[in-house]
Specification:
Blueprint (H helix, E strand, L loop, with lengths): L1 H5 L3 H15 L4 H9 L13 H10 L1 H15 L1 H13 L15 H12 L3 E3 H10 L4 H12 L9 E4 L2 E4 L1 H7 L3
Antiparallel strand pairs: 1-3, 2-3
Helix pairs in contact: 2-3, 8-9
Length: about 180
């Protein structure tokens, strides 16, 4: 019972027993007192960094860092942010085949085109490969596309999941196109 109130774990008990054994064996009393004075100070775990893993993560998430830095800069300068939005709205998007109000990124457009070119069906593993190359998760990529198309499709999702595949309803795809 006393042991439980003095020591919080087995490691502390063993450490205390070592200190007592050193005292019994006649070791230097000053050294033993120093060990006792720091007995209840929690030991911190050492963190070891793997430089190769850090560099690999930096490379995989380079694009994400750039995007996040842009958001942070916009948040720091709200007045400039308003001007940027106005200027962006005035730039006509001429190379997209999709309605301008959807505002798809080139990655999102290419994913939609890849699915369309494969008879409106594609293995999830292929989307996962594309997403991983861009430092994203497949669900994150698909959800971002569906969110942007949601209003144009009157509350329907463009890309549906079916077992191991992603499927686009052809009529939904047609609704996204500039006519």
């Amino acid at each position: 019972m006393i042991q439980k109130s003095l020591f919080s774990n087995q490691k502390q008990i063993e450490k205390f027993e070592d200190i007592l054994n050193n005292l019994i064996n006649g070791e230097n009393i000053d050294k033993i007192l120093e060990q006792l004075s720091s007995f209840y100070i929690p030991e911190r775990k050492r963190i070891k960094f793997d430089e190769n893993k850090i560099k690999d993560a930096e490379l995989r998430h380079k694009d994400t860092v750039v995007i996040l830095n842009e958001f942070l800069q916009e948040a720091d300068n709200p007045e400039e942010n308003d001007e940027i939005q106005i200027n962006i709205q005035r730039i006509p998007v001429t190379d997209s085949i999709y309605k301008s109000e959807i505002c798809l990124t080139s990655l999102q457009e290419s994913v939609i085109e890849i699915i369309k070119d494969n008879s409106y069906i594609l293995l999830q593993s292929e989307i996962e490969e594309i997403a991983t190359e861009k430092g994203m998760f497949k669900n994150q990529l698909i959800d971002s596309i569906n969110e942007k198309c949601f209003e144009v499709l009157s509350g329907e999702v463009l890309i549906e999941e079916d077992e191991d595949n992603y499927i686009i309803e052809e009529s939904y795809y047609e609704e996204l196109l500039i006519k």
